[in-house]
């Protein structure tokens, strides 16, 4: 681990230690002249035409103009002309100028062919070599109205001379920065073409690889939407693939020559600004415990705001934001590296690979920021760093999914082992359930018999109690009047016989009825009949109030009311010695049935629940009813209940 870190640190030191003074052993251009008389292309390779070029501000000179008539400034190439002091004027990115460089070479013959690699230049140019117009890109003009931008790297060939003249007109009215920001390279045609082809091959390889990885991981997300890391990574790969074809060799312009320059520039900036959001979101999805959520929200908000600024404003404004975003991006990458190192310390899955490649990517980013700012002269390393980062994270995700599949296989194997004994367990448990079901059925049958017997007993109790009470009253009356009025005594005995006969009929009906509600009864008439018979056979007065709203009750509730009234009348006569009852039955506004029966009997201080009251209580509980009994010595007896009507 220490060896790897040492190698990475050496890599960063090499990047930042590069200087501008040497170019394949040849001195840089000085005062608009570069001396390459000792240069042998086959042995020394291509050279970069870096150094001081003659700079003619606000002049568009061509080979027909006498350059000695003008006083040029010296400007370093590659660099932007922003900030250059010209006649007490600090230049901005907007304007036009002419660059000139004399290249001294030892040419064997005037027929010797040489080549130049011309990178993208902000934002239009025309190039003459030895007085011949060899390349142009965009439209060079003196104002925004007669100039138009275009990016397209070029390879041009020319016949070399001992003193080769390179004249370059540049105009910029669309970008915040103007000038030559990348290196112009001189070499033999084979060397320049090979270099160009190497760039093409590398970028196409990166583009194709990223597109494949983008689709692969997005499909993974579609199949498993809970894992957001695949989505962020797939979109990040897509952003990287898009950037590979809109920077450096500008393949998007090669494929679509009429593609809008402003739209291409917006896409270039969005790959950086919105890519930062996708990157930090991906790292958070991988190591959520290590990344502070507030820093994540802040970084995401900044990235999205910069992206919206690019979308909504013209190129001249949004290109001004790059320097500020580069500072933010460097700080964000340092924090992401901290998160990955912390995850590595905590031994999170895939943290070690992420940490190493993250450090390499941070070094590549620092290199490119300094390279494009003209501080160092190395190469554009960000595409390579990004590709390495993508490859490493793809490996991490593959390892993550591999472990998930491994867990699935282990669970499958465990389930198969369980299934081996599952059938026997199911058979045993089925047998146990059948036995339990048989025992439960037997218990339910016993309970059903018990409940049926209890119901019949309650009804027999109510019928016999009421019948015997009223019959007893009639017999007592007959005994008292038999010596005085034989006819009245016979009538009382006949009435007693009728009461006994009615009771027997009721008992037969109860015994032969195994289910309640078997035969419909006329509810209110049956209550009135019970009251009428009680008054007729006992000479007791019953004041009753039965509201018409109590119609259409369920048969079960009707029987509860009937038997409760029957039991209450019987108890009041037998035990209370009362002479008057007050009875009421109605339904209140909350749809509750109210029953009330009170008498003027002797009352009772201590209430004991006999069979009759217990039966009433049980019937009410079955209907979710509430029983209320009030009584005191010599103050009568009151029986009340309420039942919710569903």
Itemize the secondary structure elements and their pairings.
Blueprint lengths: L1 H15 L5 E2 L2 E2 L5 E4 L4 H4 L2 E2 L2 E7 L15 E5 L1 E2 L4 E2 L2 E2 L4 E11 L7 E6 L5 E6 L2 E6 L16 E6 L3 E10 L6 E2 L4 E3 L1 H35 L4 H17 L6 H5 L5 H26 L6 H20 L2 H4 L3 H24 L5 H22 L9 H100 L4 H27 L10 H16 L2 E6 L8 H22 L3 E8 L4 E8 L11 H12 L3 E6 L5 E8 L2
Parallel strand pairs: 3-10, 18-19
Antiparallel strand pairs: 1-2, 4-17, 5-6, 5-10, 7-16, 8-9, 10-15, 11-14, 11-17, 12-13, 12-15, 19-20, 20-22, 21-22
Helix pairs in contact: 1-10, 3-4, 3-11, 4-6, 4-11, 6-7, 6-9, 9-10, 10-11, 11-12, 11-14, 13-14, 14-15
Q: How many strand elements?
A: 22
- What's the domain count? 3
Helix residue percentage:
40-55%
The CATH first-level class of the largest domain comes to: Mainly Alpha
Task: Examine the secondary-structure arrangement and name the CATH architecture of the largest domain.
Answer: Up-down Bundle
The value of Rg in angstroms is 53 Å
Please name the CATH topology of the largest domain: Rhopdopsin 7-helix transmembrane proteins
* Main pleated-sheet profile: 7 strands, mixed
Number of helices: 15
Q: Outline, from the CA principal axes?
A: rod-shaped
The N- to C-terminal Cα distance equals 78 Å
Mean pLDDT: 82
Q: What class, by secondary structure content?
A: alpha+beta
